[in-house]
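tool_call: predict_structure(chain=1)
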Amino acid sequence: MTPLPNSADSVFSFIDATAEAVASGFRWKTYDYENQPQYHFNIFNGVGGIPIFLSAYFEATLNPRALELARGALAWSFQNEPATSNFQRGVQMGKVGVAYSALRFSKVSGDDGFSKHIEELASHVLREPPGPITDLIGGEASNGWFLLQLWRQKPDGRYLEGAIRCGRWLENQLVRDELGTHCLVDPIHESFGTRPFSGLSHGISGVAHFFACLYQATSDPHWKGLAMALLETLVKHAQPARGGLNWSPILGPDELDRCQYSHGSPGIGLVFAKATALIDEPDYLSIALQAGEATYHYGDFRENPTLCTGLAGGGELLVEIYRITKEKIWLERAREFAEKAIAYRSIIGGQDFWPTDAPDCFSADFTYGASGIGYFFLRTTYPLQFEAPLM
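tool_result:
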């Protein structure tokens, strides 16, 4: 199967064509969780994640327009303050995510013009008390993960100490019972209910991934032990599905109603795949492989191309397995997902448009829209160059 070089170009064309030039930079109309149009800074379904794709696209093509758009998107996102939501902390839900996008932009472009904003957001995380949310999409696992990414690029001991503080708070939220080792998404207010989630975005696999990253940064076996305790809980709750393994979104029940990046095999499989290197546990690769089998055979079960719930999210695991094993079957499967994703492109007035997971909603955002799809296309074309996003 041949590479798909024009797929990322199509996404870039859509992003370029729909960019709105404003006084502070560039913005895009995206859609909130209820499919209502919005202008928002977050990565989850706003402007803040678009520079992740644009920076990678520049790295692959050296197209200067990609950096121009990325710079403008960051400038607008740092200044934007929607009246209904002013979250600062949290990678996908808060402005910390914009700081992470700026780190990616700086690394590729050599432009350090957003360093003041990045440091201000880091200081905000360091200053405020941890919690109350645990997860990797917008909770303390995500804040600690961001501090580790910043520490790697700008080695200031405050950032590593801040990540360790996040880890200590998360450890205090862990429960050990008949289900295994786990924590609630919101252990203080129980706003997500009283049952622990399993998945990458809201569940214990995302927390396990942060502990694994913290172990890699510190070489402290304590963090490795916590990561392994959570991962062993996930092994305990894995269920046979379509020739591989899948997980219920909530620990305990047997409902296998999802197989997507946010809940189920694609995201959880990515955590196990990453753990083979992060905590030097090659046995976890077998779990990742079985998650990959289930992901491939579930296929396009949500009938959309996005990162969060669709083909791009499932394909990310297939690419990651190829990066580890170098077995071509996994890259071929990822490109098969990419070809299916391309079929969701619409052409309106001669211009390519890319959808969210809802009909007739076209968005450039990263998690639910075109940017995450485009990043996946780049990964299928250059699988050894680009790492899994937001991990």
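agent: Strands lie at 20-22, 25-27, 30-31, 37-38, 175-177, 180-182, 239-241, 244-246, 346-348, 351-353. Proceeding to next step.
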